[in-house]
Amino acid sequence: MTVDTSSLRIVELDPDDAHAAEASYAIHAAVRAYGQPDLPPPSRHRHVHLLRLGWPGHLEKHWLAYDGDVAVAELDVSLPQRDNLDNAWIDLHVRAEYRRRGIGRRLYELAVGYARAAGRTKLMASSWEQIPDGPFRDGAGSAFARAMGLGRVHEETRRKLYLSTVDDALLDRLLADAYAHADGYSPVQWTDRCPDEYVPDMAYLEGRLSTDAPTGDLDWGPENVDAELIREMERNRAIMGGRAFHTAVRHDATGRLVALTGTMIEHGVPEHAWQMITLVDPDHRGRRLGTIVKIENLRLTVAGEPALQAIDTTNATVNRHMIAINHAMGFVPIDVEAEWQVSI
């Protein structure tokens, strides 16, 4: 149902305005609690600081929509500054009780106008969908994307590992088998800050994600990742109070890192971790290096975060190799993240 939204007040969010930042956090927390109740509330500390810092390599703007004095929705627009300069990422968050009133459409039109003025020709967004026999997802985000004319170009499946279900004996066997195929390779681990000698390799591997990982029909080119960006990401994470655990595999003959994975713990949410990228250099695949970094990093993370209860990861639904590793470790599918794109 579309209704008159002429009384809706939309204002650009000032990250230094404590009341606006708290309103933003409340919207994000409410939307997550409704849409993905298996996840813990997002970190308030991280959210407030992320509004101020932005994502490294991106220009970000945020708008709040008020119904009277109540903040009911938020629009986030992110413009890549280092690469993919024709694209803009948008996130729309509308409290469940205020949906189907035309608020999302008003914010979407604002996003289109802002992106066009910035010289962008494509918008990208994502939404969460239910999987067969999975927990309920109302599909409102996907329905809205279709109504606005966006095309569904890619999907990733979110999987969760409950640590209470981990079979350590099985992981021992998987790891022993993997190492039997990885002669000439050695694990390297660190917490929070990558050792200086490995930053160029980490940047190379992080940059390969945009070209090696399946992305369906998403129009997204190679990402420019360098040492400066790696260090900025680390500095921002430290300010936001997060912790990161990384495991890599070094090719002993060359001394280079050729496989990488990581997990991130948000400030104030010690029971939950997000799995970051897992990538193996194409020239070194087929040696079970993905299994090695995933299991070794799981154990590094658990040792460093004793309150940890669950880890979430997303992988392209067609990425059979990584999905097989996750399945063997005990990850179970929860829902699907659909990715959308439209030319503007």
Walkthrough of the structure:
This protein has nine helices and twelve strands. The longest helix is centred in the first third of the chain and has 18 residues, at 18-35. The protein has helices at 18-35, 44-53, 103-117, 140-147, 168-180, 199-212, 227-239, 289-304, 320-329; strands at 9-12, 58-67, 70-80, 87-94, 122-129, 151-162, 185-191, 243-251, 256-265, 272-280, 310-316, 332-343. The protein starts with 8 loop residues before the first strand and ends with a strand. It has a twelve-stranded mixed β-sheet with strand order 1-2-3-4-5-12-6-11-10-9-8-7, sandwiched between helices. The chain is α+β, with helices and mostly antiparallel strands. Helix 6 packs across helix 7 (227-239). It folds into two domains: 9-120, Gcn5-related N-acetyltransferase (GNAT) (Aminopeptidase, 3-Layer(aba) Sandwich); 160-334, 3-Layer(aba) Sandwich (Aminopeptidase).
